[in-house]
Specification:
The complex is a heterodimer of chains A (about 280) and B (about 260). With about 280 residues, chain A is mainly α. With about 260 residues, chain B is α/β, with parallel strands linked by helices. A 6-stranded mixed β-sheet of chain B has the order 6-7-8-3-9-10, sandwiched between helices. A 4-stranded antiparallel β-sheet of chain B has the order 2-1-4-5, covered by helices on one side. Classes of the chains: A mainly alpha (about 280), B alpha/beta (about 260). At the A-B interface, helix 7 and helix 8 of A face helix 2 and helix 3 of B.
Chain lengths: ~280, ~260
Amino acid sequence: MSREMKQKLAFALLTVAAVVVVVPVLLVAGYIIWRGAGAISLEFLLSAPRSGLKEGGIFPAAVGTVILTLGTAIVALPLGVAAAIYLSEYARDDLLTRLIRMAIINLAGIPSVVYGLFGLGLFVLFLRCGTSILAGSLTLGLLTLPVVISTAEEAIRSVPQSFRVVSVSLGGTKWQTIRHLVLPNALPGIITGVILGLERAAGETAPILFTVAAVYLPRLPRSIFDQTMALPYHLFVISTQVPGMPVTFQFGTALVLLAFVLSLNAAATIIRSHFRRRRSW
Amino acid sequence: MTTTGVPAKIRVEDVSFAYSNAEALHGVSLDVYPNEVTVLFGPARSGKTTLLRLLNRLTDLLEGTRRTGHIYLDGQDIFAPDIDVTELRRRVGMVFAMPIPLPMSIRANITYGLQLKGIRDRALLEARVEGALRAAALWDEVKDRLDAPASALSGGQQQRLCIARILALEPEVILLDNPTSGLDPISTSKVEASLHELKQRYTIVAVPHSVQQAARIADRAAFMLGGEVIEVGTARDIFTRPREPRTRDYVEGRFG
C-alpha cells in the first residue's frame, strides 16, 4: 500500500471513530424524544402523580431534582473551591498533599451506590438528618466534590503566574491576590466545572435512593428535613416497580430529565464562551 | 553628578543569593543614591535581575532560596522580621521586562494596588489615576477610554501604564527590569525620556536593554559579571574611563 493510501485510510478510520461517538448520543436523544414527546403536556409537567403513579404528572419529582441540584451546589461549591485554592495556591508538594490528591482521585472512582450507603450511614443515621433533602444534598455533594475540585484547580492554575507576581509587587498579600485577581479570572472555569459536576449529580439514582428519595410524595417538600421525589428515582420506580405503567410516561420522564441535564450543559457552554470572549489574555 | 554628603537610599551589603539549583549573587555590595538613575548592566546571567528582585523581596515568592548579607532602605534592614513586606513593595515598585497589564480596565489597573492598600475614597482614587497617568506621560492618550481593557493598548502604552500603576502608589524607589525589551524605538525613547522626569522625584534602579541604553539613562552604573559587581561608579567614569579591564572590554563591545 502506498503512503498516500495509508494516509487516506488512517484519515477515514479516524473520521469513522469520531462519527461513531456522536451516533449513540443522537440515537438516545432522538429515541427518547420520539417515544416521550407525546407525554409532555402542561398537566404532565405541572401536576402530581395519581392513581398509583399511572396518571397525573411529575411535578414534585421535577421540583425535587431542581432542589437537590441546588443543594448539591451549596454543599460542593464552597468546599470544592476552597480545597482547590488550597491545593493550587498554598499546598507544598509533601506527603499530606499527596494523600489529599490520592483521596480525591479515589473519591472519583467510588461507585455511586457506595456513596448512597455511606450517606445512609453517616448523614441519615449517625448524624440523624433522617431521610431528607439535607442528607441527599450532602451525599450528592460528596459525589460531586472530585469533579469540582479538579476543574476548579485547573481553572485557578490557568491564571498566568505573571499576574500573581504583579499583584504581589503592587503590595498585595497572597490572599488579596487570590481574592481580587485569581478567583475572578478563574470563575468561568470554576462555574463550568461545578455545572458539569451538578449534571452528574442531577441524574444519579443510587445516592438518593437511601438518603432522600420518596416513591410517592405528591406534595412539595416543606423543609430541608423533608423527603422529596426526584426524577431519576421516579423514572426507576415507574420503569420497574409499577406493573401496567404507560410507556409514554416513562419516556416522558426520561425526556424531562434529559432536557434538564442538557440545559445545564448549555448554560455551562454559554457561560464559558461569554467569559472567553471577554478574557484578554 | 556629585553625591558627596547625600546618604544612600539603598545600601546593599555583601549580599550572596542562591536559587534552589544555582548561585546567582556572590558578595555584592552597592549604594543607590536618591534622585539618580542607577543602572545594573552586564551580560546575561550576571545577576542583575536577581539583585533587582531582592530590592523589594520579590525573591520571597520562590522556594528553596538562600541569602546572606543585608539590604538597607533608608537605613532599615528590609529583611528584618518586623518589616511589613507589602509596605516595602509599595515603597519600592517594580516594572517588569514585558508589560503585564492586569486583565482589567486601564483605570482598574491603576486603582488595583491602591484598593489593596485600603483606599476606597472615589475622589482620591480618581485623582491618583489622573496624576499617575500624567506622570507616566500616558494621560493624553487614554483619558477618553479609561474603562477600556488595558490589553487594548499598544506595547509602549502598556509599559507606561505599568509605570503609572507603580507611581499611583507614591513609591520612593522604582525598579525597572529591562523595561523597553519589547518596545519599538519610538516607545523606547518615550520611556527613556520619562525616566529623566521621574528621577526628579524618585530613586530609580534599572536593568537596561543594552550598554548604549545604559549610557543614555544612567547617572551611576554598576557593571555585573558572574554574580559579582565588578565596578561601580558615575556613568561618566564607567562608560568613558573604566578602571577594570573587564568593564572596558564589555563597554567597548569586546564580549557579551
